[in-house]
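Hey, quick one: can you model this chain's 3D structure?
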Amino acid sequence: MPHPRPFVCLLALAVLAMSAPGTAAQDPAPPVPACDASLPLLWIDGGRASRGVLDAAEREASRIWAAAGLTFDWARATPARPLRPDQVLVMVREHLPGRPHADLRVRGRHTLGRVIRVSADQPSRLIELALPAVTRSVLDQSLFGRPVHDLPPVARDVAVGRALGRVLAHEIGHWLFGREHTPHGLMRASITRRDLVAPIAPALPAAWPSLARGRLQERRRGCAPPCPVRQPVTSKGTVPCP
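Sure thing. Here's the predicted structure for all 242 residues.
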């Protein structure tokens, strides 16, 4: 199997270096982003996913977490794009090397995704997804009465991307709430292939919508709390703080 492209490796090393304590900054620090209910996600594509697959994955992960009041700020890595200190990197890989942990498996198949962790209680800013394993799990399923592998390329990319988005949504759940799984829904330890392509995704745990915003602000290291909004005495409107 070919090695990841140098650009992918350099980006992955860069995020670990930025997270290391005591690293001396050589350049002026970028503006500190405000903490809010949006999570910045940066795609690093080492699995050569099509644009249609990534677009569908973004839509599906966003739709799932919108139920918990969260939004995602999506970006795609380029050599000219600097890494922000608050971004979570989503690396699409051809396989996931090493021992899996905090992962999602298709029942009877391989690991589909995982959060790389600094410690048992602390996630890093790197999520890995195994695109070929997700694709294999989807192609033998049926949509619209036809096998996915027989669908036109655009529809096939949407089906694969939607499955990839569900795997990513599961891993974001681990990034926010830890390594535990639930007996049912999106956060099960394993998932059926049918769940990856079904019209409706497995649901988030029922308690999470009320907790997700607070947990996101705890996890988003390197961002500034939003400044309070002042209420002018003579106006019913609001103005932002300077």
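One thing worth noting: The longest helix spans residues 153-177.
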